[in-house]
Amino acid sequence: MEPQPIADELSPRELIASETVYEGRIWNVVHDTVQLSDDGTRIERDYIVHPGAVSILALDERERVLLVNQYRHPVGMRLWELPAGLLDVAGEPPLDGAKRELWEEADRTAATWSVLTDVFLSPGSSSEALRIFLARDVQLVPEDQRHARTEEEAEIITRWVPLDEAVAAVLAGEIHNPSAVVGLLAAHAARATGYASLREANSAFEAHPGLRSKASS
Questions:
Q1: Which amino acids are annotated catalytic?
Q2: CA 97, CA 106: separation in Å to the nearest integer?
Q3: What is the C-alpha end-to-end distance of the chain, expressed in Å?
Q4: Whole-number Å distance between alpha carbons of 140 and 191
């Protein structure tokens, strides 16, 4: 008997009680009591309820990736990242959110999209699910059609970097943002097949806790 393919899977457990212990501007912290097993074992966990996010690895015809640099206050550093943002617009499909974030953060649009990978950024403490898209055939938005960025985003700078150079920076510990690290390594791996193995851009985001019912409906 051949082993089953390696794949994460849903594992429903009985929710005994749930309480919101902190309400924030963007996400809340909840305290859950969960029936872990049939023998009566229960666990209590505090975690962040997160709307999820999208990130975009924009690649040009010269195999250069578009990186953005901005200040991140919790770590006190300017980080090189991929354009990204929250799935905080009610009813907005992940692909539409990615197109919006590429326009808002990088003044770009793209004609060709696919799913690069999906990832949980900190599954032990947060429900945040991130979808990383590959965007190609990228175009610069005319100045009069660009988004007016504010606060930290007003300081964003962009740079086209060869994919191999960016991957080397990840392995050297010079790029720390998790979506950038995952996206760059995934793109490097996908390039071996000419990106032919990637999923369609509108594929169901089944890992996202808030989108599972929509994916199965």
A1: 153
A2: 14
A3: 33
A4: 24
**Separation between Cα atoms, residue 128 and residue 120, nearest integer Å:** 6
Where in 62-200 does DSSP place strands (E)? Answer: 64-72, 77-81, 84-86, 108-120, 129-140, 157-162, 199-200
Q: Which residue has the tokens 């990186």?
A: 67
Average pLDDT (6-28) is 93
Give the Cα separation of 162 and 184 in Å (integer): 11
Distance, in Å, from the CA atom of 5 to the CA atom of 162, rounded to the nearest integer, reads: 33
Task: Look at residues 101, 100, 98 and name the one whose alpha carbon lies nearest to residue 113.
Answer: 98
Task: Tokens for 129, please give them.
Answer: 């699910």
**Quick one: average pLDDT of 95-119?**
96
The amino acid at 121:
L
Q: How far is CA 141 from CA 22, 64, 66, 132, in A?
A: 40, 18, 14, 21
44-53, 55-64, 152-161, 181-190: segment of lowest average pLDDT: 152-161
Kindly state the helix (H) or strand (E) to which residue 187 belongs, with its residue range: helix 178-190
Inform me whether the pLDDT recorded for 166 exceeds 90: yes
181's tokens = 């690290």
Euclidean distance between CA atoms 15 and 217, whole angstroms: 22
Can you tell me the distance from the alpha carbon of 89 to that of 86, in angstroms, rounded to the nearest whole number? 8
Are 48 and 126 a contacting pair, CB within 8 Å? yes
